Amino acid sequence: MIDLNHSRNLAVCPRAGCFHVLFLLPALMAGMGLMPAGQVMAQTFTTLHSFTWGDGAYPLAGLILSSNTLYGTASVGGTVFAINTDGTGFIVLLNFGDYPAFDPANPSAGLILSNNTLYGTTGSGGSSGLGTVFKVNTDGTGFTTLHSFAATPPIPPYTNSDGAFPVAGLILSSNVLYGTAEWGGSYGNGTVFSIFIQPQLTINPVGQSVILSWSTNYDSFTLQSTTNLNSAVWTTNPSAPIVVNELNTVTKPISATREFYRLSN
User: Which percentage of the chain shows pLDDT scores above 90?
Assistant: First the structure.
């Protein structure tokens, strides 16, 4: 049990009303009986990357880890970046300054990862300047604005239909993103929102065939095809997809007749 009255174990604040901050170092923790003395180990601090402003600045949010790669955001300069856990391979995957409609765009929240896609929010930017929900692939391709928040009146209450300034992060359940917006909504006091993520159909030619694939998260969707986009007739693929690396896959032979494909539920 820790005796909080033992001033020798605490950093004492000399001023009334200020905060007390206590750092329990491993040696101190062992001496107080919080951990066995044999488990005290030296700690090594390593700077993996220092931001130059050109690659972003003020990374306010935490990181996410996939394999040996860390992904994060820098709020000023507006970037999404990746870096290996040993500090090598730093790369800017997305710079919002490259997209004038998003400038300024400040991603102050962290990211979430699903398959090879990163999802996040910006607290500004977009069509009204009041923030967005976006996605980008882990290789920096496929940047897409999933939602741009609507404008609000210039004076309070700052109301609109969907919210404004989504400065917090997202969560993902099944195929739906959930988040919050600080302002806007019916009363101008913020909103909780959801966004359904549409499935992405990928087509890759291999030899004399094409392989069509989509995420197994979309089991209710079926593959359909047509030879005429002006026709309302779409034919459902007769065979069930084969699951490969968490993807539904269908292999179709290449024919002389053009075919168009879609996912439908």
Answer: 72
Q: With beta carbons less than 8 A apart as the criterion, state whether 259 and 205 touch.
A: no
pLDDT tens per residue across span 2-22: 444 443 344 444 444 443 333
The one-character DSSP state at 75 is T
For the ranges 9-23, 35-49, 107-121, 248-262, which has the lowest average pLDDT? 9-23
| Assigned token pair, 18 | 């200020």
Please report which helix (H) or strand (E) contains residue 260, including its range. strand 260-264
What is the CA 248 to chain-centroid distance, rounded?
23
Query: What is the Cα–Cα distance from 205 to 191, expressed in whole angstroms?
Result: 44
**Residue 144 identity:** T
Tens of pLDDT, residue by residue over 54-69, are 999 999 999 999 999 9
Contact 10, 2 (CB under 8 A): no
Q: Helix, strand, coil: what percent of the chain each, to 5?
A: 5, 35, 55
Q: Are 234 and 264 in contact (CB under 8 A)?
A: yes
Q: Is the confidence at residue 137, as pLDDT, over 50?
A: yes
- The SS3 assignment for 211 reads strand
Exposure string over 148-185, b if 16+ CB within 10 A, otherwise e: bbbebeeeeebbbebbbbbbbbbebeebebebbbbbbb
If you average pLDDT over residues 214-219, what whole number do you get?
89
Structural domains in the chain plus CATH codes: 7-39 (no CATH), 64-196 (2.120.10.30), 202-264 (no CATH)
Length of the chain: 265
Backbone angles phi, psi at 264, to 5 degrees: -135, 145
d(CA 30, CA 36): 6
